[in-house]
Write a structure and sequence with these properties.
5 helices
């Protein structure tokens, strides 16, 4: 025959054990949650600080429709060829290279898409500013 009192007592003990386990886990969860909220708050503060730093950095504005002067265009082309050679390993003497496509891909990822042929055209124009091999040899001597 079933002893209802014994079964009830066993259920009460099991219930109390489960409640204790739940409370322990709940406390751990709450502590972890507070820690995560602290991390999130610090990250948001860092983002705000970085945005403020970016906004404070003065970059000369390019006015659409305003033509670049000869010196400005030359400086811009020097920047282009310097970054292409130093950052992408661009070789202006190579007959075929994937750097133009890679640069165009990176520009698209940055949100400023440019056609591969346009990149190639500007790299070719900028490469004219590079010193010849003979001039480079003289500069290192």
């Amino acid at each position: 025959m079933t002893d209802w009192k014994t079964q009830y007592d066993e259920l009460v003990v099991t219930f109390e054990r489960l409640r204790s386990t739940f409370n322990e886990q709940h406390e751990k969860w709450m502590a972890l949650s507070q820690e995560q909220q602290g991390h999130i708050a610090r990250l948001f503060a860092q983002v705000r600080e970085l945005k403020a730093n970016i906004a404070a950095t003065s970059v000369p504005a390019v006015t659409p429709g305003k033509a670049l002067g000869a010196r400005e265009q030359e400086s811009l082309l020097k920047l282009v060829i310097g970054m292409a050679v130093g950052g992408y390993g661009y070789d202006h003497a190579a007959t075929r290279s994937g750097q133009s496509r890679e640069i165009a891909g990176d520009l698209e990822l940055a949100g400023v898409p440019l056609d591969v042929d346009t990149v190639r055209k500007w790299l070719k124009l900028a490469a004219e500013l590079l010193p010849s091999d003979r001039e480079r040899t003289r500069q290192t001597e």
